[in-house]
Amino acid sequence: MNLPSKLLYGSGLVVFGIAVAFSFTKESGQSFLSDFLHFTESPTMADGNHPPTDGSWRHQLGSDEFPVEPDRYHLYVGLFCPFAHRVIVTRELKGLQQFLPMSIVKAYPKDDGGWRFPATDDEYPGSTIDHLFRSKFLHDVYFKSDKDYKGKYSVPVLWDKKTNQIVNNESEDIMRMLNTAFNDLLPQGSLQRELNFYPSSLKSQINEISSWMMPDLNSGVYRAGFADNQEDYEKSCIVVFKTLDRLESMLAEHKGPYVLPGPNMTEIDIKLYTTLVRFDAVYQQHFKLMVRSIRHGYPRLNRWLKNIHWNVPGVKETTDFKHIKENYTKSHKGVNPLGITPLGPEPHVEHWTDEDEKWKRGAEEKL
Q1: Which of 136, 161, 194 is the last residue of a domain?
Q2: CA 50 to chain CA centroid, nearest Å
Q3: Over the stretch 243-271, which tens digit does the pLDDT of each residue have?
Q4: 159/76 Cα distance (integer angstroms)
Q5: pLDDT per residue over 327-358, tens digit each?
Q6: Last residue of a domain, one of 194, 229, 259
């Protein structure tokens, strides 16, 4: 299905490879990295409601245990996290706000108990109280699902209010469920119901790209940023930029508005967006990824990023740079011990120009 131009390019409509998200871990960068990579790259299916040792719940919406019903499910997210951000973008573009409310943890601190909720919705702009339980910490939610849980406390979390348990806390699972699970609740013929970010005709291509983009870029930035020696840092840094080079070449080959050829935005665009929108603003300086910026070193990726950010209704509204920048700079004490958040870049994402619009129209005419 083609994404309608009025949905993609601004008509006033408002509409995590394997990854979970950020978890509360030890303060040292290397401990954070080992925990993060284990938690995001070694998922196993849950047995009943007892989570496996890696901390992943992998139940599916639409199963007999978890049928899709109005006002049954709830999301726990952090606006700072690129993997939770994938789920938030999917929820927004599919128009699921009324069916899937969200509670949003604060961007920092994460020590002395892990990710926490504000006492009021005004305490930290963009975060919310725990709308279900008024919990102080995200770990309180995990313990409600399993009082003996000993894993990490991560976002996103999909919660079932009826059975009072976690359904799933793996971002790719959740974004794919949101892609189709609620379609029967959406109006017949609506744009949101027709959107499909993981169509059967493109699954093999999406899976192939995810197989290298996730470890080499989405998680690769963390390998570089939390490396504890020069050799590991340089090795990981080189992989990140080789992956960016590969994506730049892909965009050069077909010259379309999305990563895959054709008129359709897919989950690859969502997964890439939530990493690249953080690159110049945070990853460059915080994770020492200084070889090139997106805006000055990758013209096609930069234009792709601008198009997704400024022209797909709802995407920029899900992107909160205060949460993003303050989370990285104020909660990674091994990387930034003073917790100073740099100013800039200005703007966080370069603006869409008349030249960009001319390019876009030409690209659309060729599709």
Answers
A1: 194
A2: 25
A3: 999 999 999 998 889 999 988 899 999 99
A4: 8
A5: 999 999 999 999 999 999 999 999 999 999 99
A6: 194
